[in-house]
Automatic annotation (TrEMBL):
<dbReference type="GO" id="GO:0031966">
    <property type="term" value="C:mitochondrial membrane"/>
</dbReference>
<keyword id="KW-0472">Membrane</keyword>
<dbReference type="InterPro" id="IPR018108">
    <property type="entry name" value="MCP_transmembrane"/>
</dbReference>
<dbReference type="InterPro" id="IPR023395">
    <property type="entry name" value="MCP_dom_sf"/>
</dbReference>
<dbReference type="GO" id="GO:0005381">
    <property type="term" value="F:iron ion transmembrane transporter activity"/>
</dbReference>
<protein>
    <submittedName>
        <fullName>Slc25a37 protein</fullName>
    </submittedName>
</protein>
<keyword id="KW-1133">Transmembrane helix</keyword>
<comment type="similarity">
    <text>Belongs to the mitochondrial carrier (TC 2.A.29) family.</text>
</comment>
<dbReference type="Pfam" id="PF00153">
    <property type="entry name" value="Mito_carr"/>
</dbReference>
<keyword id="KW-0812">Transmembrane</keyword>
<keyword id="KW-0813">Transport</keyword>
<feature type="repeat" description="Solcar">
    <location>
        <begin position="10"/>
        <end position="104"/>
    </location>
</feature>
<keyword id="KW-0496">Mitochondrion</keyword>
Amino acid sequence: MRSYQPEKSLPPALTLLASASAGTAASVVTCPLDLAKLRLQTQLRLPPGVEIPEGHLHGLRDAMLRLWREGGVRALFRGAGARAAFHAPSTCITFTTFEELARNQSQAQ
């Protein structure tokens, strides 16, 4: 475990802000991949030997290209706001809790 250095730590309010920003940025940047993965996961699974029907996705690259053809950048980032609204608070809670526990453990020793 890393040693806690109080002079290098952020105050809790800045930890909240930094972690919310990081969670938001990460969820927006990964939105196209998450959307393509979701489409692959929700399409019907075909048994072996069955002819692949028209419109069936063949992998991540195919899903990304289909999204691009459907609406360009807008289609790739569809739902980014909802993802950010979900991930920012959970990242905030996780990192702020970790930092505060590390600070308290360091002070107890």
